Amino acid sequence: MSLLKTDRTTAPKAPKTKTREWADSLIFAIVAATLIRWATFEAYTIPSPSMENSLLVGDYLFVSKLHYGPITPQTPLQVPLTHQTVWGTGLKSYSELIQLPTYRLPGFSEIKRNDVVVFHVPHESQYPADLRTNYIKRCVAVAGDTLEIKDAQVYLNGKPGETPPGLETTYFMQVDNPNDEVTAALRAQGVVDYDQPGGVPQAVTGPDGKVGYAISCTVAAADYFRKQSYVRNMTVIQPQVQLFPDVADFRNSGAMSATPRGWTLDNYGPLPIPKKGQTITLTPGNAAIYYKIVARYEHNEGITWQNGMIYQNGKMLSSYTVKQNYYMMMGDNRHNSEDSRFWGFVPEDHVVGKAVLIWLSVDPNADFWHKIRWNRLFNIIH
């Protein structure tokens, strides 16, 4: 006699249908892909020339989340307050949005000077950080550094910083006769204007009535053009704009520094980069540097800007202790990049990952047979 008893009250489990098997497999694949993308690598493309000539428009990149560690979602959660229907509306009652603490998992590297970094742009304050536009720039200074730019040369803590090999500057190249020879030379030197058909720079007349080309190119290309008989002059040009911290709150309010500095893109600083745990004495001379840190990035309540100083709940702050590390990010196309010189520091919790590899590069201006830039495929990003 068998000692096992059959439970006749439980019906045998019905086998999954083919549709259910496909659905389960699809759900598993989506979840797995989402986790891999969040925790390991994510693909990005370069849409603008702000990092040329190091990265080109049409480059497709892999960005590593493993280097600095993936970060938990920063979008606030909306939690139901009750499960009861609000009578007469057909709607459920909800609480206010709840912001969970942000946490970065361990990575195997810190953010270093000259890393090419993807981050959430800091100035789109209408969105949670992880729903903002992603930018890619080069980290030129880390927390604790003092940054200064003199005649376009970056200095860190008083010493010259490393110059990226693809660094570009914008020039007005004066010529006597714009013609096919000049156009061919521009193309051969890799000079591109993405706003023009085919990417070919067009001759323009400068404010002084002289004819030439406004171009962004490397130092090597500029040196080449200076030696050509058709070039009369190469003059550096840059936009004349108010920069951070004279503009204390880029695109979000009219907050301006009480002590304007008048810095330019090529002559900027010295500017200290805030470091976690550092206590700052706030004065009218430096309050604009730290305003967005106190008011937005570190989620303090009751912060206002009054008469060039930071107030909390109506009381002027005389000091502040920084809660996270900050970084300065700049494009390698130094006169054609909206970066930290415009809007200030990038908080550590806005950093997405490190750009590590170009896996594909498509020239938007080339014909079908030359669309792929074969020499850029699988290049390590430096």
Automatic annotation (TrEMBL):
It is an enzyme of class 3 (hydrolase). The keyword Translocase does not apply. It holds the Pfam family Peptidase_S26. It comes from the Bacteria. SUPFAM superfamilies: LexA/Signal peptidase. Coiled coil: none annotated. It catalyses: Cleavage of hydrophobic, N-terminal signal or leader sequences from secreted and periplasmic proteins. InterPro entries: LexA/Signal_pep-like_sf, Pept_S26A_signal_pept_1, Pept_S26A_signal_pept_1_CS, Peptidase_S26. Residues 20-164, 317-359 form the Peptidase S26 domain. The keyword Protease applies. It is found in: Membrane. This is Signal peptidase I. The gene is lepB.
